[in-house]
Amino acid sequence: MFPNAFKYEAPASVDEAVRLLAEYGYDGKVLAGGQSLLPMMKLRVAAPAVLIDINGIDALQGWREVDGKLRVGAMTRHAELEHAKELRDTYPLFFQTARWIADPLIRNRGTIGGSLAHADPGSDWGAAMIALRAEVEARGPQGSRLIPIDEFFVDTFATALNEDELAVAVHVPTPKGPAASRYMKLERRAGDFAIAALAVHVALGTDGRVSEAGIGICACGPIPLRAAKAEAALIGRPLTEEVIVEASRLVPEDAEPADDLRGSAEYKRDVLRVFAARALRDIAKELQGKVGIQ
Amino acid sequence: MKIRVKVNGTLYEADVEPRTLLAYFLREELKLTGTHIGCDTTTCGACTVLLDGKAVKSCTVLAVQANGREVMTVEGLEKDGQLNPLQVAFWEEHALHCGYCTPGMLMASYALLQENPMPTEEEIRFGLSGNVCRCTGYMNIVKAVQSAARRLSGASGEAVGEVATSGTAAD
């Protein structure tokens, strides 16, 4: 199988890429890791007239901390985030999520920016970035803007990016206080999209009560979703068994799963509830005794 | 579009259509048919090659994306007529049946051992989770990778002598 013929552009800078996006408009499609786009092109589900390959733009790779945030370049590969030891203490959700994405071969190519811009409902990064309250940095002809993740996913395979905008990075706030996270995913077979998956991030205040709660859901709706009710049930309360049970019961209320080959909607809702309880119990255990250390 | 790609140490220059996939370029242009095309939809891993040292599915990389880069295929494992210890281990442990997945299994295993010279069984299964085998049930593949890991680290007993002569795998 091979894709339709297309014109190939390989810009060496973000400015050049943005210029090409503006020039080609709807005909242009950005090629990041290509692990979703190229299969779609081979299956002729997608047939862009122009492919703008951003793999040669060094400025889109890697990460750094700036102004209380971690800025991760859009072309950072899943495998790099999976193996980045320096991120494990402060931003553990990156490696916890990355290791669940597809398989090691795909993780060597696929990128966090490409995954977010592709906006698959089953996007593992989508769930994780919702949990971490990330912002997507978009660059267009008029300059840069930050798009909160809750506004970024518009619909299945559709984002808030304009036609002439390139997602150049994702920004994640540095957790304040002791924090822990979990990524929970159920798949039919290794490397598959999720039946249901859940990303959970919790930070505790000096009083031992939850000060930050982020819960992202994927594969259970048209876009990755936020379990806002469960988050609200955690904020300001200690992570006791009673609070955990209450919050995890609220998680499915913000999910919109469908009956499909991967399972019934009812089953997926229950998976989310069970995952939330397991994740929160693990997090409570991990954070036990950590309050007041800083 | 003109590209220059180093494959198994040899520099090739070719004029390719941008839509040519790396797997097809290797097989049809360079006649390196060791790289197999299985599912053609980024699932099975039969087409696994190393691109600048990283194991990737070559059916899901454009040939033009390999421009200026180095590719290693299964043909690159053998050195001077000597099988790579991984290939010897696959042979000895009978880590294949029909053999269709084997080139991909070998390349993914090679990349795994480069990063983790002595993986546990769990790490091997996790590391090879992008490669599908429909014959073996994976048991002997795992055994072969373990055996190759022992050989390459010089930890095995009697097997070392016979394989040491082909021990260029660490390069």
Keywords:
A: 294 residues, alpha+beta, Uridine Diphospho-n-acetylenolpyruvylglucosamine Reductase, domain 2, Uridine Diphospho-n-acetylenolpyruvylglucosamine Reductase, domain 3, Enolase-like, domain 1, 4-stranded antiparallel β-sheet, B: 171 residues, Ubiquitin-like (UB roll), DNA polymerase, domain 1, 5 strands, 33% helix
What does this 3D model show about the protein?
The complex is a heterodimer of chains A (294) and B (171). Chain A has helices at residues 14-24, 37-42, 78-83, 92-98, 104-107, 112-118, 124-131, 149-152, 228-234, 241-250, 265-287; strands at residues 7-9, 28-31, 50-53, 63-66, 69-73, 135-140, 143-148, 153-155, 158-159, 166-173, 179-187, 194-204, 210-218, 225-226. The relative contact order of chain A is 0.12. Chain A has eleven helices and 14 strands. With 294 residues, chain A is of the alpha+beta class. Chain B is of the alpha+beta class and 171 residues long. Chain B has two domains: 2-76, Ubiquitin-like (UB roll); 85-153, [2Fe-2S]-binding domain (DNA polymerase, domain 1). Chain B is built from six helices and five strands. Chain B is globular, with a radius of gyration of 16 Å. The chains are: A alpha+beta (294), B alpha+beta (171). Chain A binds chain B through residues 1-8, 10, 31, 34-35, 38-39, 41-43, 51, 53, 55, 79, 102-106, 108-109, 190-191, and chain B through 1, 17-21, 24, 40-43, 45, 48, 54-57, 59-62, 64-65, 108, 112, 126-127, 129-131. Chain A: Pfam families: CO_deh_flav_C, FAD_binding_5. Chain A: Residues 1-177 form the FAD-binding PCMH-type domain. Chain A: Keywords: FAD, Flavoprotein, Oxidoreductase.
